[in-house]
Give the backbone structure.
Amino acid sequence: MKVFPISVKESSLIQHNKEINMEYIMRALKISLILVVIALQGMGELMAQDGVIKVTLLGTGTPQLNPARMSYSTLIEAGDEVLMFDAGRAAMLQAKKSGANLKKLNKLFLTHLHSDHVIGIPDVWLTGFLAPAFRATPFQLWGPAGVKNLAAGLRQAYDFDVGIRIKQYGGKRAEGMEFDATQIHDGYVYESNGVKVTAFEVHHTGPNSAYGYKIEYNGRSVVLSGDTTYDENVIKYAKGVDLLVHQVGYAPEEALAKNQVVARIMSHHTQPKQVAKIFTVTQPKLAVFSHIVVFTEKGPDLSSDGEEKMMEVVRQTYDGPVVLGQDLMAFEVGDTVTQLQ
Ligand SMILES: [Zn+2]
């Protein structure tokens, strides 16, 4: 126990001790600083590992009722962003199955307005207002000309439900029942939390009606072709991309010759040989097929036989990595592109 005041001798001893203590403190500080630097470097590496784009194929099919392939929808998760591209049949249910954070799912980008790309919108929009998402801000929607009409029409069609919810919840929370629709054009669409979305026009149903998307985050990139015929614009945006998700339409030569309807349908899509050329020119780290349209001369071919034949045609002229997409297949785009499931 120390009693104050203290003697001179004691005082000089304390001064000496103080110097020793300062030395210890400085040494401890240096060590702490080194540890903090090491820890920050570690975190930097961790953050770099976190800075990946996860791509989940929610639906890989067409308008055809095929329990094995829901109609087209793709989910992109990057950092804080959860972005859906097209909302085909069962898109919301597939998003739930994928394990994505549905609380963050309030942004939908449409490639075009064919029914198989928009039929799932009411579920994503309306269910997103309820548990577990509890969206309290307008549902954001981007798409080609007609997207505002689509949003207004859906809002009107579901007016009964929307009216009840607004009455129940009122105030700011009720805003979650509304749409915030924006018409896209070739070029910049959206940027937030380091995630950038660019649209590029493609040929499918006429001018200004169909788009592909490029998604960039942390130096990584993904391109979704959307529905399109062979299009140089896809090549322009997909050159050197990490992951290229491309649609494909395939019917055997005799089906194209014998059935005009099949030939017409195929004229709106990219043929396997053409996709092989796109992959060869763009050289993605990984190419994946989604929105797989296969016909025989009798009509839609929902068996896997046609798909395998389609892949054979692609492989005749493209020997790079290519995957036939399946519903809920997921990919991680980091330094490399990994198929997760
Ligand atoms: Zn279409």
Remarks:
- Confidence is low (pLDDT under 50) at residues 1-14, 33-49.
